[in-house]
Structure formats: C-alpha cells, structure tokens
Design goal:
single chain; 173 residues; alpha+beta; five-stranded antiparallel β-sheet; 9 strands; 27% helix
C-alpha cells in the first residue's frame, strides 16, 4: 500500500507598504495608473513626509520635475521620493517585486521603441516637464486640470474630492 502525503506550502511575500512614500518637504501630485472614475481624477496630492497606498505611474513636483515608473495593471510599483543634498528629486523602487515589474516593463518599452518605432517613456526623473514640448507635458497639463490650474498644492490637498480620493486609495489592497 502506498501512502501519498500532500503538503500545501504557501510562500508569502511580506511587503510593509505598497504605494508611494513622499520623504520630501513638498506637496507632491501622484499620477494614478488609471483615471479614478468616481472622482474623474487622474492625480492626487500627497502631503510632505507621508505615504499613500495605490497604483501610481509617477509623481509630479511643482518645479516641473516628474518621476516616472513603469508598470502595467494589475502590477504595482512601490517607490520612495526624496531630495538629495543638491535639492534634486530622486526616487528608489522600494521592494524586489516592484523592481522586477519596473525592469521588465522598461525592457518591453525598449523593444517597442526600437523594433516598432514607438515612443514609450522609461522609468526615470524627467526635468522641466512644465514647459511646452516636454516629453511628459501631458502629465503636467492633466495635473493642472485636476487641480483647476492651482499651483497652491497645499490648498488643493485640502479639497474635498482629493481627501475622499486619498481615503478611497488608503483602503486599496
């Protein structure tokens, strides 16, 4: 008689936080991966030295600097933002799963850009994106539209639709 012993083994990857950590003194706009239908917004404002759960394509700073990360739904790319000693924006992918997603998506974009002559943007820090003709100018325009062309992002942070969107995002798994 043969006895078969079956074992279910689960590997659980524990990630303390999935989303964006803003470790700057700036109010920053986070660009959602997809437009939030309930609020008709593509961007949400995050306070200095705070974090927000959610699926984001990148972050927009008031000086026109944009941080872009690469991901496709349903994958998440978690990242942290800060300013170096020179005051320049830097970012770091915060976990191995996010790093794999980001690198894989960048490789796919490289192939699409070189073989099929597409114009896909890679993960990196883009400067002066608030100027006409910039690569991610559409991101800046979308953010300004969502904030009603206000550069007072601290005031925009307090808007009711922004508050409700942050609360909804905080509940995402």
């Amino acid at each position: 008689m043969t006895v078969v012993l079956r074992m279910n083994i689960e590997f659980v990857v524990y990630v303390a936080f999935k989303g964006v950590i803003n470790d700057t003194d700036d109010y920053v706009i986070l660009r959602l991966e997809d437009r939030e239908a309930d609020y008709n917004l593509h961007n949400v404002v995050i306070a200095p030295h705070s974090k927000l759960r959610g699926k984001f394509d990148g972050a927009i700073f008031k000086d026109g600097t944009i941080v872009k990360v690469s991901a496709h739904a349903p994958a998440w790319v978690s990242f942290k933002l800060w300013r170096n000693k020179k005051g320049e924006v830097e970012y770091r992918i915060t976990d191995i799963v996010s790093r794999v997603v980001d690198v894989t998506c960048n490789m796919i974009k490289y192939i699409e850009n070189n073989i099929w002559d597409k114009n896909k943007d890679y993960s990196k820090v883009y400067l002066n994106q608030n100027l006409p003709g910039a690569e991610l100018e559409s991101w800046w325009e979308s953010a300004m539209k969502d904030l009603k062309n206000s550069l007072d992002w601290k005031k925009s942070f307090k808007l009711e639709n922004q508050k409700q969107l942050r609360e909804k995002l905080a509940k995402t798994l």
